[in-house]
Amino acid sequence: MKIQPMRLPGLCVALSLLTTLLPDLIAAAPTGQQMNPIGRVARLFNRNLVEVEARAQWLQASLGYLAAFEEKPLKEELGWRCGCFDQSAGNPWVALDLGKEVQLGEIFLIPAQRQTGDLNDLFPRRFTVEAACQPDFSDARVIHTTGRVPQGSPSGYPLRLAGDGKPARHIRLTLEEGHPRGLKNTAALSEIFVFNFERHPVSFGAKVTASQSVDVPGIWDPKYLVDGRTPLGLWEGGANAWTSSRGDCMEVTAEDPRTEWILDFGKSATIDRLVLFPYALPELSGPGVVPPRLRVEAAGRPDFSDAVLIATTGDENLPADLTTPLVLPTKPVPARYLRVVSDKAWQLGNRHLQALGEIEAWSGNDNLASKLPISVHNGGLDHPISELTDGVGSYQILPIYSWLTQLVERRQVEEKLAKANGDRATMAAESELNTTWGGAVALGLTFLIPVAIVERRRLVSRTQLDKLRKRIASDLHDDIGSNLGSISIIARAAKRQMEKQLGPGELTNDLGEVEIIARESSLAMRDIVWLLERRQDTIGDLVQRMRDCAARLLRDVEYSLVCRSSKTTAKLTLDAKRHLFLFYKEALHNIVKHSKATTVVVRLYDVRDKLVMEVVDNGVGLPRGEGDQMAAVKKITDRARVLEGVLNVESQPGQGTTLRLTVKRTSLMATKKMSHE
Fold first, then answer.
1. Average pLDDT, the chain
2. Counting beta carbons within 10 angstroms of the beta carbon of residue 564, is it exposed (0 to 12), middle (13 to 18) or buried (19 or more)?
3. What's the rounded Cα separation, in Å, for the pair 615 and 645?
4. Whole-angstrom distance, CA of residue 561 vs CA of residue 602
5. What percent of the chain has pLDDT over 90?
6. What angle do CA 377, 378, 382 make, to 5 degrees?
């Protein structure tokens, strides 16, 4: 039976006073526990509990940077299923012919979705994976084997297997133990992803052979192991980038639905595969859509007079549940121009729509379509669009290897978080019980009621201020944010309509500026709302916001943000949070506007009792004014002075710039009120 700590009104008053007098010692306690006076004092005497809670908070925050795991079951083309219905045929197996020898990197096995009546996902319990150069596997070598210990189900997550880096063209998985489901050794997989040593996928469209397959037309077939369709959804990251970019969607007529999307690579290239992401309609809460039938042509001339068909979806309509990207292996034809053609529109009620979310054209390890403008033709209309190649949907679109790796890491982090939460619950119950009895004895020896009354009034006043701050933040987010979003959407729709009717001009450019200003104002408003949030006042919260800001401002710059501070759970004062973030944001603005940098590195680390923020770029350096003074750093110098910190600026023409802000931790965590600008 779980023991609940005693709750005594007078005891809570005494313990609340103690925690008020010693705020720094319990700064690492979670917000939920800080509201409990007994729990707050318990953490004063149990540093292990504070460390476990800090670790749990850090693990929870880490999940926000990883690809989300959300199973989206398929309705057709589920994968490969097998069962031992012929004992003389030996163990079931499935083999992939990659088409050519590659240096074998990593292999990811994706579990099949759970079917009605199945207790689990039928992931193989014991199996062996072999690689070979010969089709008869006479030179086979073992890449992975479970041995005699059964492999537990990965619960829907990918299972990563390490390759050996040696040449291989054929991959074979042999099932040694499955599940009893009518047939002996029943097992199922949704997808097998094979990557070469350079982390490039080489299994899409591979030739697949298998033994003892349980084939169901349109549902189970070995060829579905290499089509890219899994229950794991789109290849998107965890950082939600606020954007109106969802791709291209236009309404066409039933009489003339033909639509073309044309890319100019600027040079001749051979496309290995085309990846089409579905367009997410706001009217639909489930799958996205692409045109029902597509064909892809490559040409060396802009008029496509020498066009060659390199890929097609066939005469049958595409699956109705496009919760995954559509992967089209292509013929190896060198060409400069690529054209995606749809002669049939997707129908929503009485509307006919041609829509795509994102287009990727891969040649080796390079997405040649990235950031390229695309020309869209429909009837007499011809307009360019950039949203189809910007690499952003509802979330950031990731390379498939990065996406799978993040899902594997998410499972590991979630397992560690579950253990940390369990340890925290046990330690918290024991510590609070001991603190309750100790506090009861201390209460009998003190008379703290008058002091407690004063403290209560202070807390009430602080609560009222917090409610006011929260209401202001909510009004900003709901009212002004909604209005700015509406302005952006209206301006964008008007610009498109005007371009269709009158073509590009000054008015369409002005509408584009209105859309950009509204979007940037909405992003700035979100930063203001975050600065007002009291619940997000730790250094870890600041780091997460810095990552979001860098993702917006440094979209065209290679950057990294590394936090080595061991005090990520320490709370900042409201002014300290504000000035640190605005210092960082001003530094990034200077880089984007003036530096011409291609690489930016941001570091946060501890030096004894100080926190150091360092921003380094490889740009042209800071311009110098009279007396060799760098006028561009005046604003950030003022913020450093308000923080009572030391700012070091290292800059030489053509050799980049280093900004290093060093602030005493007491200036960031102190209760004194810092002056505003």
1. 80
2. exposed
3. 15
4. 5
5. 32
6. 40
- pLDDT at residue 365, as a whole number: 82
Among residues 267, 332, 259, which one has the least CA distance to residue 295?
Answer: 259
Helix, strand, coil shares, percent, the chain, to 5: 35, 30, 35
- 530 and 553, same domain (yes or no): no
Q: Per-residue pLDDT for 525 more than 70?
A: no
CA proximity to 584, closest of 608, 607, 554: 554
Could you tell me if 522 and 541 lie in one domain? no
543 lies in the same domain as 668:
yes
Q: What is the pLDDT of residues 397-416, one digit of tens each?
A: 888 999 999 999 999 999 99
- 13 located within any domain: yes
Q: Pairing relation of β-strands 558-563 and 599-607?
A: parallel
CATH number at residue 119: 2.60.120.260
CATH number at residue 639: 3.30.565.10
Q: How confident is the model at residue 31 (pLDDT cuts 50, 70, 90)?
A: very low
Report yes or no on 258 lying in a domain.
yes
Comparing 67-81, 151-165, 213-227, 519-533, the range with the smallest average pLDDT is 519-533
For 430, phi then psi, to 5°, come to -65, -45
Ramachandran class of 513: left when φ > 0, alpha when ψ lies in -120 to 50, beta otherwise: alpha
Report the candidate in 427, 602, 441, 622 with the shortest Cα–Cα distance to residue 29. Answer: 427
Residues 580-607 have a mean pLDDT of: 88
Token pair 């309404």 is at which residue? Answer: 251
Residue-by-residue DSSP string for 307-345: -EEEEE--SSPPPS-B-SPEEEE----EEEEEEEEESS-
Overall number of domains in the chain: 5
545: in domain: yes
User: Is 658 within 8 Å of 13 (Cβ atoms)?
Assistant: no
In angstroms, rounded to a whole number, what is the distance separating the alpha carbons of residues 585 and 590?
9
- Stretch 660-664: mean pLDDT, rounded? 91
The predicted-structure confidence for 351-402, as pLDDT tens digits, reads as follows 888 888 899 999 888 899 998 999 999 877 888 888 888 888 767 888 899 9
The closest alpha carbon to 319, from 71, 76, 73, 72, belongs to 76
Same domain (yes/no): 258, 386: yes
Mean pLDDT, residues 32-39 taken together: 56
Q: Same domain for 436 and 490?
A: no
In the prediction, which pLDDT does 168 show?
96
Query: For 315-320, what is the mean pLDDT?
Result: 62
Q: Is the dihedral of CA 327, 329, 332, 335 positive or negative?
A: negative
CB 122 within 8 A of CB 112: yes
Query: Which domain does 374 fall in, by range?
Result: 248-397
Indicate if the pLDDT at residue 24 is higher than 60.
no
Contacts of 636 (CB under 8 A, 6+ apart): 583, 586, 587, 590, 647, 659, 661
H or E segment to which residue 192 belongs: strand 183-196
Q: Element (H or E) spanning 211, and its range?
A: strand 207-211
Q: Residue 675: what pLDDT?
A: 41
Indicate the SS3 state at residue 430.
helix
Contact of 440 with 15, CB cutoff 8 Å: no
DSSP code of 476?
A: I
Do 550 and 574 fall within a single domain? yes
Last residue of a domain, one of 500, 535, 570: 535
CB 197 within 8 A of CB 118: no
